[in-house]
Amino acid sequence: MKWTKFGSTAAIYLVLLLGALLTLGPFLLSILTAFKTREQFAQQSALSWPDPFTVENFAQLLTGPAQFGRAIVITVLAAMLILVGQLICSILAAYAFARVDFPGRQVLFWVYLSTLMIPPVVLVVPLYLMMTEAGLRNSFWSLVLPFAFASPYAIFLLREYFRGIPQELIDAARLDGANTLDVLVEIVVPLSRPIIATLTLITIVSHWNSFMWPLVVTTGTEWRVVTVATASLQSQFNGNWTLVMAATTLALVPLLVLFLLFQRSFVRSITIAGSA
């Protein structure tokens, strides 16, 4: 019996180990390649350690004609503005749907939520035409404005979380003279930090990794984002894979730092959602 239990446990850990290797393997390969010269990459095994380590690829990316440093700055600014806009609009809308009584509230909410069923690729052409007519095509604002005013997913997630906040707290605040905005800012938002942190992580990651829309709406290198800049390296530098892997490694670092900063809140929101 003990051997059977031991064998089943070992099999589970083996499957988990294989899954971890398949998941982390590409990242390890990217990092190892980023610290190699083109000669090392051509002559050595892909999984061999760089000997010696070199930062030549990173220096070329940030100071050379690739202008990758500019792409990082543009991506950071766009993601931050989208994040601020989405959080403000989503929190206000979610609170209205969760706690404010007005005619047609449920119908309006479910109609808006149904837009989640629309594939994002369907919106590319209409958004492109709108940006062109507004004179914003190939500009920084064309990267930000289409996504800066809330999202159905964020509103849905926040609404469900807000509904779980005890009504007694809100009633007590209103007895003390708090208005709707006071309740939202001083009670609801502080109690919702875990889910807001989760939305922060999801929003930044999704727009940091956005590729199709920036590729369509911008041309040239002036407003190129990280994903488009990385893709262009493959043709711009004749398939220099050490340079491409250095770009992917640089693009990965901010996301890892962001996850490390918000991991406690992220795990806490999952725990709270699972116990609800």
From TrEMBL:
GO terms for cellular component: plasma membrane. Its main location: membrane. The keyword Ribosomal protein does not apply. One of its GO terms (biological process) is transmembrane transport. Pfam families: BPD_transp_1. PROSITE patterns: ABC_TM1. Keywords: Cell membrane, Membrane, Transmembrane, Transmembrane helix, Transport. It is found in: Cell membrane. It is a multi-pass membrane protein. The keyword Transmembrane helix applies. The chain crosses the membrane at residues 12-35, 71-95, 107-128, 140-162, 183-205, 241-262. SUPFAM superfamilies: MetI-like (SSF161098). Belongs to the binding-protein-dependent transport system permease family. This is Carbohydrate ABC transporter permease. The lineage of its organism: Bacteria, Bacillati, Actinomycetota, Actinomycetes, Micrococcales.
